[in-house]
């Protein structure tokens, strides 16, 4: 098969080289964007009188026909035609004859592929932002119905102070909100048109880059043609935002795994999000959060892969840059699937409020509150801390919790203890009293829910 660039060559390409250098195996994912970009380009060529109106119409109709044939699998991609761009151009020439060869006037595959990538990532970033919002909605709904549910709050994975379960869940709402902001911000850099940069230096034809950019929905054009074809930092930025978000999702997943364990039994994941064991009949495994935790690794890997590909490249285009694609597609697809599973998994999980409550009552996470109690009676916090430490030790040695001690026992440690200590120590009170702004007290959690609501577009 003759190459679109065959003129200068005297020998056919080595077969293995042909297979290994071709990108059609993966860049066919850019088919729609490539056709869209070509239609915008040739529309501009027509407007500028670079091709005739008739030629422009022939090419546009041809491109639409080619798209239809590709979708209906009436044509087959070939490795000999290297990539999606040349495959489509070949199909076009087959479809409408030599006039199809005019499409590539004033354009190079270098600005073409960059345009396709920008278009693809723009569409998918927008989709991902919507999917993040769906997860936020699921988190919000669970939080809203669990304001009064108490759960041990941990530091060092040791019980620290009880919190409202809504407060714990909303932490993820805010993390996801910042993730969403990062994606929105990265969109500003993705929303720039490289088209018309040519191979690297611009073109001799009187093209109009601005109208093409507008036609394609871009905010602006790259100011420098070499930058336009060399830049992949819009992908890196997306991948960085993706990595940070997956880190958040991984932490949430880890908690879901822990909470659904026999040891904790704080939640039960819906059967439809778990799988069984081929040998142990009793098993119900939290595969989905485990996999989400693991998928984080490939998203980080894709970011580091591309950073490494780009780091030593001289300007402008280098074939190395073809390696930007698989990682980007993989990150996009991983994120979309992860978010799509996460939202319904959170929405459908059962919160075992009784087990959480029992955990909260059977620990020493109210110890800070007795320390604060003595402080309100005039004792210095450091001294109070020391006294309470001794009380905790005494309780542990006697196999009791703080609420099980008698007032006499308390008075043995400090004369300022009174009967009201038993109210202060109740987990509900412990949580309710943390009424500082952003704290876990239910009043504050309700304020937080209101704030969160304003962050959801629907
Ligand atoms: N398949 C190539 C890529 O993805 C398209 C650009 C090719 N340009 C070139 N000068 N060989 O990067």
From TrEMBL:
Catalyses which reaction(s): 2-(N(omega)-L-arginino)succinate = fumarate + L-arginine
Residue stretches making up the Fumarate lyase N-terminal domain: 7-301
PANTHER family: ARGININOSUCCINATE LYASE
GO biological process: L-arginine biosynthetic process via ornithine
Main subcellular location of this protein, as a coarse class: cytoplasm
Gene3D superfamilies: Fumarase/aspartase (C-terminal domain), Fumarase/aspartase (Central domain), Fumarase/aspartase (N-terminal domain)
Domain Argininosuccinate lyase C-terminal as annotated: residue spans: 364-431
Gene: argH
Name of the molecule in the record: Argininosuccinate lyase
Keywords per UniProt: Amino-acid biosynthesis, Arginine biosynthesis, Cytoplasm, Lyase
Organism name: Alkalicoccus daliensis
